Amino acid sequence: MKGTGISGPGSRKRLLLSDWFKREWPTIHYESGALSTDDQLFERSREVQDPFQLQKIDTWDWTGANIKHESQKQEKLTDSIQYAVIKRLLGVKGDTEYDIIFDDDDGYEAADVVAIKILGQTLKVDLFHCKYSKGVNPGGRVDDLYVVCGQAQRSVHWKGDPSRLCKHLRLREQRRISTDRNSRFERGDLKSLGKITSKVSTLESDFTIWIVQPGLSKSVVSTEQLRLLASTELYLKETSDTPLKVIGSK
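Predicted structure:
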């Protein structure tokens, strides 16, 4: 493809649009409610009779977070959504305390935050997909969910090969520290990841995919939002029997 190049994220390097799309595939939304990204088409299932159940939306207190700021970045911005999620996960104690909490935010991410724990003979993996709000206050904007629902759907493939996920995290960390930047580990390290990797083949996988959108207001959620969440939930269940959990605001 010929044409003017565009700058890659976080650098001044210029890329052809065709090369950029190989790295960051656009998400296209259709009037029918379907969406496509990469080589995958997600259609709203005809079996979706009821919208997402309202009681399934968990609400967090986002005090101190700017709901329009998604990533904590290298600086670990304390007003970001991702930082708030990580802080909350680090506060989980007892039997449910995570062994690894990993900042995977960037192109080709498995999720913005990957949290892993071994519970007996089970490998528990939680993939948290964070998305910034398009408004300063929580509301019923369906646009706040389109992209993050697509990310949740695409990430389901990691459940089929947990060892590949571990390899992915290891390579991401090695690339990060090779450039003298901050570690991606918020808890754990390469050694603890290695121990988990060595056990993966003997463990039963238990994956949960999370959508984190503080711009989603449980009190004023729209029908369109609930239908989109329901389609995503059904897709995850039908393709891999993976549960979907949603976090928003009051």
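Summary: The chain has one domain: 50-249.
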